[in-house]
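Feature request, filed as a ticket because there's no other form

It would be nice if the structure record came with a short human-readable summary line next to the tokens. Right now we just get the raw output. Example of a typical job, pasted below so the devs can see what we mean:
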Amino acid sequence: MKNKFLLLGIALATLTACKTASTLQLAEVQPQKNISINNELKNEEEFVKVIEPYKQKLDKEMSQKISHTSVDLTKEGDNSNLGNLLADYTLEGADAWTKKNLNKNVDAALINIGGIRTTIGKGDILLKSVFEVMPFENEVIIVKMKGSDLQGLFDYYAKTQVNNPVSHLYIETNKGQLVKSLINGKPVNPAQDYYIATSDYLALGGDNMKFFSKGESISTGIKLRDLFIEYFRKTSNVVPNTDIRLNFTGKK
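Raw output as currently delivered:
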């Protein structure tokens, strides 16, 4: 941190010099000795004193227990327990918002495994654990889609066979070919409107999920991380679902 502020000071001094250079004449350039910027530089004691109370307050807040898990929550495998858990939280939170604001139900949820940045070890779940898992400011988006357009979602999974977590979806493939696709345990009705909860990143086509462009994106104003924190707080002991949602037989 102290090195960053030293560099900032040097940059500001340089910019100031550039502004006044046009009114000055260059007299003579003398070679100077290089100054190495490294961890041996002295602490900026005054700066440290100023930020220390805020750092202590932040550390205390981040170290508070918000839940507990009796098992390691990981992102490994096609149906990872952490992936299933966060996909379920996404669906539940989005469904509550959609019932209140649209008088509709959320039919399914889809998040990306790449957005889950780490795992949560067995034991107490701290507030900082959720920030480490989800460091991004992604928003929950509801995408209204015709059933006929959901084929693009299922084809995406059949083609990529990536373990992007889902909730209330079942996708079965065999050697890259779609075998079975269900939403809420039922076959898709091509004429029906479905409401899919996801992140703004995916709704905009992130991870090459172009199929969402065929739907209507509805903003909720809810941050995914805030939603996860809320649901961890609601559950004193987390028990993730381990059911099979992605069944990639003969996966390449």
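Something like this underneath would help us a lot:
The chain has one domain: 68-249.
Residues 1-27 have pLDDT under 50 and may be disordered.
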